[in-house]
Amino acid sequence: TEQFWLDTRIPLSNDLADWREFSEADKDVVAKVFGGLTLLDTLQSQDGVAALKKDIRTQQEEAVFNNIEFMESVHAKSYSSIFSTLNTPKEIEEIFAWTDSNEILQYKAQKINDIYQNGTPLQKKVASVFLETFLF
Predict the structure, then answer these.
(1) How confident is the model at residue 9 (pLDDT cuts 50, 70, 90)?
(2) Which of 34, 42, 59, 62 is the one with CA 20 to 30 A from 15?
(3) Is 79 a catalytic residue?
């Protein structure tokens, strides 16, 4: 339970003063990082966990995957909260336009999703671990 958290428990508005001190270049980097994280967490919560759940063999596995699915959704929602606190609607639109057109991010997401849709149970698990670790 120590790893359990909700985005609503973190007062993001407390960071606004610090955010305003960032250079435009730093703000751009942070925004793009969160855009990429949003893309990958959304893939994991909407497609990845569903693909992994198709291969469940025990109730314990199901419970673990249900928790992972919930937490991935919380993570994606937390990025949305960060965007709406720190960025204007126009900036948010630009961030997601960049994410949608970034060839490297899209390549990673497409490769992982292809494994989720067509891979063996072991390949899906490996893809999930990759997505949650060094592909981030």
Answers:
(1) confident
(2) 42
(3) yes
